[in-house]
Structure formats: C-alpha cells, structure tokens
Amino acid sequence: MTNDSQPRTQWLGRWGFVLAATGSAVGLGNVWKFPYMTGEYGGGAFVLVYLACILAIGVPVMMTEIALGRRGRGSPIDAIRRVTAESKGASAWSLLGWMAMLCGFMILCFYVVVAGWSFSYLWKMLTGGLAGSSVDDMAAIFGANNANPFNLGFWSTLVTVATMVIVGKGVQAGIEKSVSWMMPGMVVMLVIMIVYGAFSGGFGEAVQFLFAFNAGSLSSEGMLAAMGHAFFTLSLASGAILTYGSYLPRHASIGRTTLSVAVADTLVALMAGLAIFPVIFANGMEPGSGPGLIFMSLPLAFQAMPMGTLFGVLFFVMLSMAALTSSISMVEATVSWLTDNKGISRRTASWGIGIVLWVISTLAMLSFNVGADWTLAGKHFFDWLDYLTSRWMMPLGGLGVALLAGFVLNSESVREELGLSPAVHALWLFMVRYVSPLGIVVIFLDALGIATLEFGVQWPWLLLALAVITLIGELASPRLMRTLSA
Ligand code: PHE
C-alpha cells in the first residue's frame, strides 16, 4: 500500500506531463489505424463522426481521467476507489479501473505486433528490402514479412523487450523527451509527404475522400468504429492517461493540457490521412485494403520521391519511436498497481508483465501466418483484441467515467480538482452528464441493431432527446443549474 501522506512521484518540469501524454496519444493509432479505418469505412462521414467524438466525448473524458488520477494518486483501480470513497460512492465503481487496466494490456498485446511492422520496415528501408514498383510488389513484400512467424515474432519480441526495459528501468521520462523532437519531426515528414502528394496526382481525390461528407456511406459498424477510435487515439479508458494524471502536479492546468494533447493528436491523424491517400489513389490502390494499408502504400511514395530512402528511414524511425512512447504508457497502469499493492519492485513487475505479454502477443502475431485459419466468428485473435477493446471496452469505460464524475462524485471536489473557469466547468459538466453519455449510448444502440441512426435525418430528434434528458437529470440532481447560477 502506498502511504497516502507521502507525495507520489511527479513529472519533472513543466512539460513532463504534456510530453508523456502526447507521446501516449500520438502513435500507431494516428498513422497506421486512422488511415486504414477511414479507408475501410468509406472516408468523409467516418472522419466527421470521429472528429465529433473527439470533441464531444474524448476531450471531456480525458479531462475527467486526468482529474481522477491526480485526485486519487494511484493506478486506475486505486485512484477510482479512493476518489469514489471520498464522495461516499459505491465501491463497485473501481471495476472501471480493473476494466481499464485489462484494456490497456489487451491493446498492448496486438500493438507490439504492429510496432514490430514499423521496426521491420525501418530495417527494410535501411537495407534496401523495399524494392518494388507496384502496389502488387508492395503487397507481396508485406505478405512475405508476415508469412514467416520467426521473422514477425522477432520484431514483436524486440518491441516487447524494448518496452519492458524502458518501463523496468523507470526511464520513461528520458524516452518521452524524445517527443519534443519526434513530434515536430513527424509533422515535418508528413508535410513533405503531403507536398509530394500534392504534386504527384491523387491529391484532389484524397481531399475529397477524407473531407466530403456523404452521410449514406457510414454504416452502424463504422459509427461504432469511429467512436472507439476516438478513445483509442487519445489513450482513454485504458489506464494510460489516468495513471499519467496521477503523477501530475497540483498546479498544472488540466483544461489546457487536455486541449493541447487532443489538438496535436488530431492534427497528426489528419495529416497522416492527407499524406497517405494521395499515394493510394495515384497508384490505383483500394482504400479499404485493411491493416497493411500504410505499409503497402508509403514505400511506393518513398521510392518515387527525391531522397526517398532518407525520408523513408526518418519516417519509420519516428513511427517506431511514436509506437514506443505509446506502448510504455499501456503498461504503466499495471506496473503502478503492482508496485503500489503487491510490494513488487518496478523491475520485477515489468518483467512479469513482459512474459505474459510475450506469450499473448505471440498468439496475436500468429494470426498472420501459422494461425491464419484460427478464427472465431470470422475474426482472428489479433482482430478480437482490437475489436473488444476499441468497440466495446473503451466506450463502456468512457461512459462509466463520465457518469461517475457527472453524477456520483461530490461536485465540490470535482470542481476543485479540475480547476476550470466557471463557464468552462459548466460546459464540461454538461458534456459528461448528458452529451457524452447520450452519444455513447445512441451509437451502442445503433450498433446492437436496437435503433437505427441516420444523423442527416434524426438530428432534431437527438437534440430533443438531449434536452429532455438534461431536464430530467437537472430536476433529479441539479448540478449544472447550480454551477451556472454560482
Ligand atoms: N493512443 C495510442 C495511439 O494512437 C494508442 C494507445 C491506446 C495508447 C491506449 C495507450 C492506451 O497509438
């Protein structure tokens, strides 16, 4: 047990938390997952729902998680338990912490495989292993890279070991500093690729694909995917942000930090889309090609552009670093829970987690070769890990966090912890009590086939529902009204 009177480790320096949280948020989710999901779910409408979810759900939930972590000063389980106890809420809320911890670990189990792709492409870039001139050549290279379990396993093992060494030595801060050159570097690289795309054809089509809103093109599945991705890309409901928040000093501004992390994260994702889709359209590639999308398209661009090898190497170095600053954040919740509660050292905890991780991630890695036919309901183990976490666990966890903060916790402590101006606080409260929960529930109902959503047609009804729910909520427990009149 931690001694509550003793201050917990805190971030060093003013930028510590922002760097770490940005490092956690910006990762494969932005550069690998966002483009391929956008391709799979048809473009503009997916992007719009994703952006709406970031704003209406992601940002308020992120602020809440940071506040919960800072007030509870512990792993998600301990922090939520303490904060809920302080407000005399039911202890069952700490189940949210358990789910978050499990979720972070499950994500890591497939994340190391994708990070392994990034490292292996860096190696190929350095050693000339990406020679080919067509989409088919690139698809063949990607396929061959996956087909050999020893090759793929080598790279995912390397990522697993690197993650655990960093976490075990407790040198995250050093790695997270890399965000201060990696982020600008990433942005510069993406700008170079966007400029290249603008001159090599396919750019107009890419912009059209990403930003033209075509309401009919989005399925319920796509809507759920967009919401889930908003959680994934901001590292929410998986213990990462909450645990990082537990190291945040008292005086830091939660509102401003959240905004800068969310803006950086969204910019990188949109820029990645603008960098990748021109290459896809210019080469006649199918946008819905799935998880291999960036690995089959980007190398073509690097081959064709001047100084392409240099840019390609730099790009994969940054992508690999971005993946590591995210993967270390996924273990932090579990490590902090083990060290606080089980009296285990950080080193032992991370090696223990590392072994379990290695076994499960190896099973996920086998989905691409030996275990190609091991499917359940049409999904491989790798897909199941992604599907369960992004589509269900994270939105559910986010819903729980919003309801906990909006209805259960003592409003005075929450207000004090968040430290927002009165107007912004009222907006935050309106979001976590009504807008985010309604959004999450409506998208769930739609995905379960219980209701059919057509935003183009139904928005007046949704607004009416929001107004009615707000009214009922405020009559039952008038917090928002009190905030506004204070
Ligand atoms: N946000 C990270 C990314 O976009 C992934 C992540 C999810 C990190 C959950 C931590 C926790 O790559």
Structure, explained:
This protein is mainly alpha-helical. It has a single domain, classed as Amino acid/polyamine transporter I (Up-down Bundle), CATH 1.20.1740. The protein is 77% helix and 0% strand. It has 21 helices and no strands. Helix 3 (44-72) packs across helix 10 (203-211), helix 10 packs across helix 13 (254-282) and helix 19 runs antiparallel to helix 21. It is globular. The protein starts with 15 loop residues before the first helix and ends with a helix. Residues 1-6 have low confidence and may be disordered. The protein binds phenylalanine.
Please provide a brief summary of the model.
The protein has 486 residues and is mainly alpha-helical. It is built from 21 helices and no strands.
